[in-house]
Amino acid sequence: MKNSIYKFKKITFVSFVKTPLRTLWLNSLWLIALLLTSTISSAQAKISLEKAIELAKSNNIDLKIADKEIEKQTVLKKTAFQADPLQVQYQGGQFNSVDFDHNVSIQQYFPIGNITKANRQLQEELVKLAEKRKALSSYEIEKAVNLAYYQYLYGVSIQQLNSELNEIYTKFLKNAELRFQTGESGNIEVISAKAKVKEIETQKAQLEYDLAIYQKQLQFFVQTDENIIPDEKTVLKYATIKEEGNSKAEGLLTDYYQQQISVYQKETNTYKAMRTPKLGLGYFAQSINTDWLFQGFTAGLQIPLFGGVNSAKAKASEISISQSQLALDKSKLTLNLQQQELQNNFAKQQKALDYYQNEGLQYADQIISTAQKSYANGDMSYWSYISFLNQAIDIKKQYAEATHNYNQSAIELQFPTIKNN
Fold first, then answer.
1. Mean pLDDT of the chain
2. Coiled-coil ranges per the record (predicted)?
């Protein structure tokens, strides 16, 4: 199974521009986004993460292909007994006298020794190997669903932040218009406030498209025709960290390679068993001087005098055993090093998120509240107000990014990438 890499589009919350955009263009874009949102929302069904994973494991085509492989290898167990084709021969002519006589014979060779048992054991191990491959695929699909699910929730959080900013700047616009009407400020404040509000509305339209993309990513991994979306009541912070994350990955990896080793061991036994003779039994009936019926039986052995080919194949399978063991050792080392790296990154992202949850967001809310009151009371200049507002907004943006980075690192820690060849 090849290493799977899942890439997701990341929302960028751009800074507010100073130049106003054309009102008609903004209204058109907003209308398109609204229609798109209405169309999608009307047919969307909310789903929990657990249900999404369950559906993915029952619907995913890759897992269905894996099931067919298991089914195929199970059917091939019936090929363990491999007898040679029945030989039927007719002979006619003057082989006994001057009379024209007839001879009919049949002969069948059967495998003897351990070859049938070896074939059956090999096929049983191949069935188990197909099951181990499916387990790896299931693991990767579960990881992909987790990533896609929380990617959508991240988009929702950015959308909520956009709504909050829209509310803040709408109030700012009203204050600016009031100050302009009373002569306390110039028209530049009103123009700038309008530009910022329109910019936020434009971003809202873009975020609707982003959410549509994230929804399709989730739907792709679940592989359903239904337009499913994550339940927005789900806590944004990924909260299913389990200590056995690394041990589960290592267990799947070890099981796969050990099963591969078992296959090569049985394959070696099969090639060795091919060096044993085959037993043949036959029957014949013939005429002598045109008189019928003279009959008899034959018995014989097929002895593989030149068994070097099967010996070489058995030796090659033994080498494959060593290769699989080395590959397992390498994969375990890679997994352990990866786990240490993921653990460090997770601790880093957790520390950043803790700051914004415990302090950063409170600072942002205090800055916004204080700045709005001061500006409304005329105790703060326009440019100071904008400066403080941008600082608070930047903190909220960084919190959303910190949460997203935390979720990504937590999922990677829970599902470290399994690299196997």
1. 84
2. 112-142, 190-217, 330-359
